[in-house]
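Recall the central idea of this unit: under ordinary conditions, the amino acid sequence of a chain determines the structure it adopts. In this exercise we apply that idea directly, starting from the sequence alone.
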Amino acid sequence: MIYGPVFSSAIAALLSGLVIHRVGIPFARRFGLLDVPNPRRRHAKPTPIIGGLCIFLSAAIGLAVYVAQNPTFWNQNRISLLTLGTSVLILAIVGIIDDVKGLGPAPKMGFQLLAAIICMAFEPHVHQFGLNWQGIFVSALHPMGLDVLGAVVWPLGAVWLVGITNAINLIDGLDGLAGGTSLMVCASILILGAAHGADSFPTVIMALLVPAIFSFLTVNWSPARMFLGDNGSLTLGFVIASASLMCQPTFNPSTSWVTPFTVLLMTGYPILDMGLAVKRRYKNRLPLFKADRNHLHYRIQRLGLDVQQTAMLLLCISFYLQVAALCLNFVTPVIALVGIALSFCSIFSLLYVVRSIERARVNQISAVHSTSTDAARFEPSVLHIELSPLYEVGLFEEKERCTHLINSLEAIVRTMIGANDELTRNRDRISVVLNGSTDSEETRNAIQTRFSKKLKAFSELVDLQTSLSSLPISVTRRRFEPKFEPKASQLNC
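Accordingly, the structure predicted from this sequence is:
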């Protein structure tokens, strides 16, 4: 009865986790391992940030209990445990340093690549996965004389490990979200692995991680008493990525091609959010690793949901993806293909719904603030200052700060315009009708430069950590509507 040791070890991981996480809170406060609030991190007070260390300590206790009951497991998987443990230890140390002191993207990426290379080269299961796919590539490319391209499997494997590691890290923005998502992905890998053998390496590891993560969620659900931190999100992401390469989830030989789609669906939400972040930052010409508050969970929260509601919605979506991924392995090829298509369509439907609601709200605001009058006229130039980055500061967590910042910005702009210029402010922007001579392109560029320097100084003064280094500004010649008088309630952030 191999399930007996696994079950008892999982119980040990759960019970020890419940104790460790509660003991870890005063421990973290005692040694200053805290996440201190700042303009980008808006929790109310300094919060312990050693969730990852507590999770893996709980899992390690469970592993010790399992090895004590089943000594052959250590003998059979010693290299796997040492290799994966080394990679996890590297990322945990990097994560805790980043949480407490802060690290730049270059060293973090460097250590992630080091951990990935160690895993790909020395972890037997992951290394065998690479050899298997290299053989498939070589067989397919041999008729074309491109056998050497089979080696591309190894860098692709490293990219997968680093990518999923960062994907879990990026969704760690709301209480319970990263931990809950990791819990469900680990549970899916556990189910798939258990069907192939309860004593397999990825099955045992996932069986210990699931209760350890669950114990963490008891102190991480909103309002959180402990955060996962980079020491948790990086390590959990790496273990999930590694385990996804170790297990063989396909039960029906005729549908072996669904294996990659199974893994993609299980990690669908983190991958989606990471893809949107990369696209957004590339489009706006921002550094790839620059933090912002336009992740999917923040966008959904700005539609009017609170932290718990947003986390529950996204966790339900992740649960749906887990169920879809598991079901793919038990159906016929045609049904599997239809299921994959429907699953991907549903993911993009979510984005469409979120974007549609955002546009509807913007249109509603625009309709409320617009005035239909025959007095509309053409002005020489209009200067626009977009307020969207300030709402990243406000959201629904700091309404007072949001209002204060916008009022301060308006006061600064008023000191920079002439007596004949007209200033209006609506929900999205501050607009200034420049009644002076701004006919030439050179004059408009000079005005834009002068305002840009002032607004950049304003951003630095109030310590804005938004998706843009400064507030977007433009000077255009276009039709401008006369001033409106919005209701006071409509100016609330």
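Residues 377-491 form a domain with the Alpha-Beta Plaits fold (CATH 3.30.70.270).
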